Amino acid sequence: MSIFEKVLEIYQKYHVCIHCLGRMFSLLATNTTNFERGYSLLLTLTMENHQKSLSSDVNHEIYTKNLRIIAEKAHFIPARQVLMKQGIKLAPILSSEKCYLCNDIFSNLEIYAQDAINKIRDIEFNNFLVGSAPSSQMINREDIFKAEFNLLESESIKSHFNRELGKVLSSSLHKSPEFLTPDITIIFNLSPISHSIDLLIRSVFIYGRYNKYLRDIPQTHWNCRNCMGKGCKLCDFTGKQYMTSVEELISPIFLSETNATDSKFHGGGREDIDVRMLGEGRPFIIELRNPKKRTLNLHQIQKSVNKKNRKKIKISKLRNSSKAEVKSLKKSAESTRKTYLAKVLSEQKVSKEIFITNLTKLREVFVNNKIKQRTPVRVSHRRSDKVREKSIYKIEGKYQKPTLFEFLIETQGGVYIKELINGDDGRTTPSFSEIFNCPLLCKELDVLKID
Ligand SMILES: [Zn+2]
Ligand SMILES: [Zn+2]
Predict the structure, then answer these.
(1) What's 177's DSSP letter?
(2) Is 54 a member of any domain?
(3) Residue 313: what pLDDT?
């Protein structure tokens, strides 16, 4: 069956718009639009039947009948005019008769575009992408239609809509579509009776480093262990195990500057609650979700955060980041070198001479060797129980009192320093306690450097 015969067969049964007619033959001919495809088909059909209807062919009434189908069911104006000039009366075009496949969506793209523009008015973005979710009713109807007329060269209504609406939006917004990482994705939920719009706004990621000067706050917010965050007597109905955290001190200013709905704090590793983070700080990335503003004055934000949290925390080296960098930040946390300063208490008195002998032993045993460290009991609720092999790169020691020493320790990331010193009942081996042959306890710990 020729394409023309198929088109006439379709219009004997249904009214479909020119866009949808063209979509049924999308894979045929390139560098044109579905509208142009549909229009060309109807125009050629009109011309051919017009010519034949004027001929002396005995079947000329069939051609007039074909013209009538194109005029009345396709609502095609050139065919209507041919017949009206011949004095033939035609059924009027009823505005209630809508395209069987799209319900006239493609004739009303401007309305859809305007709805989207209203919806994104207050959102900053450099580029966008149009997506759509046609209702299952529309998709089923189109599938059955294609099967009925054996239409094998069609395109999906979804990609047709996305492209055409993208063109309209692009020219009204003066912004180009972006297919890989759009700042904003405008999703149209399409159905024959209504439509709605959902927005997906790409998160903003900001990299920085933080210092922590307090010994009693965690890196991120912790739910109260008793009520799991719901609020109870034990947590004074805050739902929190700790009153604040590095995350909670940093994020409010970012949230208000971007007008984001929420944020997530990604740390490049973490220190214990009672451990300070000194030196150049620890890398972090803050992810701001559904931001309305994405061009930020990072210098100003850094100043505000630091001014508000003086002596508690400090942030520095802010710059724009990405989702990909969050992954590499998490991955690299285990492999980076870290330098710690540990204040260590000894249960027994140790003379300076013995300390120096033991320090030499420590270096012989540990430096450039691997230790075996089983997950400490105190973190076993959040990390799997296994033995990790870790490297120690450098140890320096300072004798302060017979029961008080200071150690500067450089290690691979992920070493539990407190357990490296006390031995954790044999779970970390060797340990400083083992070498000193007396129980040692890490009283205070600071992170001085993260490479
Ligand atoms: Zn249509
Ligand atoms: Zn609670």
Answers:
(1) B
(2) yes
(3) 97
